[in-house]
Amino acid sequence: MTATRVLVLNSGSSSLKYQLLDMRDASRLATGLVERIGEATSRLVHTPLAAGAGPRERTGPIADHDAALKAVADELAHDGLGLDSPELAAIGHRVVHGGLRFTEPTVVTDEVLTEIERLIPVAPLHNPANLTGIRTARALRPELPQVAVFDTAFHTTMPEAAARYAIDVETADAHRIRRYGFHGTSHAYVSRRAARLLGRDPSEVNVIVLHLGNGASASAVSGGRCVETSMGLTPLEGLVMGTRSGDVDPAVTFHLMRVAGMSADEVDVLLNKRSGLVGLCGDNDMREIRRRVDEGDERAALAFDVYVHRLKKYIGAYYAVLGRVDAVVFTAGVGENAAPVRSAALAGLEGLGLAVDAELNAVRSAEARLISPAGSRVAVAVVPTDEELEIARQTHELVEKANARK
Ligand SMILES: Nc1ncnc2c1ncn2[C@@H]1O[C@H](COP(=O)(O)OP(=O)(O)O)[C@@H](O)[C@H]1O
Ligand SMILES: CC(=O)OP(=O)(O)O
Ligand SMILES: [Mg+2]
């Protein structure tokens, strides 16, 4: 019997999303989410799809990602899908920062772990959680291939003009300071899926992808290759996010250090955790913000306006970078669900051939769909992302290749 299953782990700073897939047909056997890890109110929701059963929920403190993964392993074992199953071929891990070194999915070794650890300062919210996930999974199944799939990989095709910061070249190179970009697995999957929605080959189309989740980033993809993206050295640059500022004048940092007496770590926490939507209005969930806007709350309206203004600015910039745009595509939690964000971001851009059909935009669906009026020069689409499926495919492909060589 050949093992055909892949478990995918997507560890965020305080959450763990997972999917178990059978790669014979890419069907999902189980999915789930652990949220609020490290808090007293942690919650695990596990859906055993293969068993045809509904979601099971568990609440109560889960201290860290190690405990979270062990709880997930217990849930899977309960359905006969445990990590000890001989049908499990590999575990695929989302790793956010791969630096210059990792441009492809990579089988995890001790040396690979050391390198991911070295990159913690440039992905402080993400790489530590990713590492814990890998270490715990290895401890549970030491002989099983563990594959790391990097958020940065898709962006390594960016031209030097887009990847370089205009700072002293020797200093930048000595410290590997450049624009890496993140959410690449999502940008790759969504740009390909959007091409299919248009009935075109990815190699023929230019698309702008707007990945709007807790973290948010835009990318310009030409013929299937990333040519520009909004995140930089770290996942802090670019769009306004749930708790992150996105673009600010870098002088804000040393101004706060000199004038407000803040330490580098305090400014780091301010920009990464107390800024963005939460900094502007106290809430980082777009559902809550929209509810407050509808009630006439001015702080929430300001947060919404700043968010959408930044988004519109990036759409215009990436239009210019690409020259010709076939589609603007919204994805991730906010992009897939928040119709007011989509319509506001494209309002007034009819001159660029961009428009949103109000009725199509209001439709709630989990399917990839067009929301531009028929006959629009540029398509506008909503494409649900599936980072887990993409990670599973890349993991499976790598393991198959390695097996074929044996
Ligand atoms: N129905 C909805 N309407 C508006 N925003 C939503 C809706 N559902 C989810 N979101 C937004 O999506 C965000 C989470 O997006 P997601 O892609 O799951 O993020 P991440 O993977 O970064 O944790 C939430 O913070 C929330 O603001
Ligand atoms: C890189 C990044 O910002 O990821 P997330 O949106 O999962 O926080
Ligand atoms: Mg995400």
From TrEMBL:
CDD domains: ASKHA_NBD_AcK_PK. ATP binds at residues 17, 211-215, 285-287, 333-337. Signal peptide: none annotated. One of its GO terms (molecular function) is ATP binding. Substrate binds at residue 94. Pfam families: Acetate_kinase. GO terms for biological process: acetate metabolic process; acetyl-CoA biosynthetic process. Pathway: Metabolic intermediate biosynthesis; acetyl-CoA biosynthesis; acetyl-CoA from acetate: step 1/2. This is Acetate kinase. It comes from Streptomyces genisteinicus.
